[in-house]
Model the fold of this input.
Amino acid sequence: PYQVDTSNGIRGPQSGYNICNSTTEGPKSQCQTAFVNSPDDWCLWAPQAPLSNVSDTEGEMVAWCTKKGHGTRIIPEGAVTGMSWVRTTNYIQITGALSQQLLDLDPRDGGGEMDPHGADL
Done:
């Protein structure tokens, strides 16, 4: 669907979209679909605007990917400073370190989960 969440819940309406392709790719992409394919082809969610922090923008995050071709924003060279990939039969886990400001995150933001105050509802 164009937008997965069409409700007007506690966060308000979905700000981006989920149909992502070559026409939506680039530094202003509002694609909110993340892909996890391999250690060198994965995405994360980060803010749309520079110097944002997670708690203020959690409902507006957009996808940033390591490779072109997904219709998202592209993680800039040097933004990922360390990464660990674990794949089991039940899950894939990616952990790492970032130069946060290259992904529009305020470098002073300590991060955390995208829902820092518990469940929305």
